[in-house]
Every structure is written in structure tokens, then in C-alpha cells.
Write a structure and sequence with these properties.
The chain is of the alpha+beta class and 307 residues long. It is globular, with a radius of gyration of 20 Å. A hairpin with a 3-residue loop joins strand 12 and strand 13. It has 6 helices and 15 strands.
Length: 307
Amino acid sequence: MAEQDRTFIIKFDNKIPERLDKYLAEQLSDLSRSRIQDLIRGGYIQVDGESIDKVSTLLPSPCSILITIPPAEPLTIIPEAIPLDILYEDENVIVVNKPAGLVVHPSNGHQNGTLVHALLAHAPFLQGIGGVQRPGIVHRLDRDTSGVLLVAKNEKTHHYLQEQFKSREVNKIYMALVDGCPPTPTGRIETGIQRDPTQRKKMAVAYNGRGRAAVSEYKVIHSYKNHTLVEVKIFTGRTHQIRVQMAYLGCPVVADTIYGHKYPSLPLHRQFLHARSITIRIPDHSEPMEFSAPLPDDLQQILNELT
């Protein structure tokens, strides 16, 4: 049976006008802003019954937004038999321990050898989500960040997991070694994060209510002479969130040459950042489940040498 369009309505009733694409990106966490802009330009978005094709349209208040998401396009990615460290798998989810250096999605400069290629080889039946047919990546990790990553094996599960991320029900814990030390043993960081206005490949802390809200909590695990091991819990999933916010505190992640020191303070070829665990509800299980991945050898070796 042919796949059908998904159609739903969102109400907008804010006092301050907002751009259509920006507002939808905040409301639809399972769609990227570029994907939303494509939908707008393609005539798939209506405001109060009128089709809108301009992404910068300011929303009147109040108004009703009708969103139609067309079926996925045919798959063009060729599966690759790349080894996967699978922590858990059932009929609905795959939980992977992603190694550092592995890109999640194909992109410019990374057309093959990604986690998506590996997942398609492991489970060719994975259903398409978003704009193209591809494995259901629920969230992402930077190329050089290791650790736990969830994959939905069908559309229903993807939506179920994404709703928990959106409502901040997911417990996500990272381990990071930082240069220097945070200002307090424990703390909560609440900032906006946006694209750096001068370097578009970077993110930056946003001021005056701009950017997308980013919330993290940290706890010092161990203090060394010039470094600190911290546990970081994130409540939002902004691009480079931990890296940006730790640098904002004056203690950037070790070997993060983008937001930290130009030359790493320790002999490490990638940032010391590891997604240690995720606790989330998955289909067919009444209680939340915790999935965890041990610290990789390269990061553990650094700690052993500091001790």
C-alpha cells in the first residue's frame, strides 16, 4: 500500500510575531530547519488556509498552521558493511555505541562511510522518515563525540521517541574532560545558542533572548592539576551544546580546537566528550530503560595518565 501524506495543525498565538520557518523548527523537533524550509517552498504549509511559499513570512497572531509532510523519497544510499557496536536491539529500536570519527548522516565531504550506511547494511528494512528514506536516527552526535545513540526501526517508534526528547523526558548524560575547572562544583547553564554570525560552521552563545534555548547541568567528578572531569546532563539537544557552553564558562572541552584552545593541552586527536548514557521509554516496555556505553580506550588512557 502506498505511503500517505502526514497532515497536522499547529496553533500560533504569540504576542511577538515570529518567522514561519523559525517557529516551526522550534515546534517540530523531528524536522531540521532546512527540511521545514523545503516544505514551505514546496507549498506544503498553509497559514489560515492560504499556501505560503516564503520561509521568512511573519506569522499573524492568532493563526492556524496546516503542515503536510509528503512520503519519503526513494533511497539512494548504498549500504556498507561497517561494523557496529550494538548495545541493544529489538523490533522497534537499535541502540548503538558510536565510535569517534564516524559521521552520522551523509553530507558534503562525507558521502559514504557513515553510520547511516552501516545501519542500512545491518537492517535493510528500516523505514524511511523525513525527506528521504533512511534509518530513523532519533538524535545525533558530533563526528568526534562517541557514545550512545538511538535509532528507531519504524515511523511510529521514531515519533514516540522524538516526543520524549521534545518534552525533555529523556535523561542524557555525557562525560567531558575540560581545561581548567568550572566556577562551582555543580551548576546549571541556561543560554541561547545560535549560528556564529561570522563563522557559519560554528555555534555561539546568543544574547538578548536570541537563539534557541539550551539547558545543561554539570557536576565535577574529579579534579586534576590543570583539568576537570565533569558529568553533564543536557535537557535540550542543540548543535555543539556542551562544547559551546563549557567554553562559555571558561573551561572548554579538552582537544576541542573549534571552541577551545588551538593546540590541545593533552595528546588527544578529538574532543574529550562521550555520551555515556541515555534513559528513555521504548515501546513494549512499561518502565524507562537505561542504555550506557563505557568510556572508550583513547579517553580512558588520558585519564590513566593524569592520575
